[in-house]
Amino acid sequence: MTGCSASEIVNTGGDTKCKDFLTQDDKKQNDEVSKMLKDKSGQDPANLEITATKASVLIYCQAVGKEDTKISEAPHG
Question: With helix as H, strand as E and coil as C, how does the chain read?
Fold first, then answer.
């Protein structure tokens, strides 16, 4: 299993690191954001909430976050 990070195998949600999030495909990013939001609220998030939060996380990771910054640290609703 060399070369595989844990986030490729398991949805780590808000614990996903920016470096991993930025290399994931669109569906995987949506899954991670969805899990992060569900863990926070206890409810399945709406598609619009997932889309908006993913955009915030992408901008945050590209502009401010470091490689090891968790996506949960990005400002989101």
Answer: CCCCCHHHHCCCHHHCEHHHHCCCCHHHHHHHHHHHHHHHHCCCCCHHHHHHHHHHHHHHHHHCCCCCCEHHHCCCC
Tokens representing 76 are: 């989101």
- State pLDDT tens for residues 1-35: 444 444 445 678 999 999 999 999 999 999 999 99
Tokens in use for 44?
Answer: 């399945």
pLDDT at residue 12, as a whole number: 87
Q: Cβ neighbours of residue 20 under 8 Å, at least 6 residues apart?
A: 5, 7, 8
Instruction: State residue 10's pLDDT score.
Output: 66
For residue 13, count other CB atoms closer than 10 A to its CB. 20
32-62 residue pLDDT tens: 999 999 999 999 999 999 999 999 999 999 9
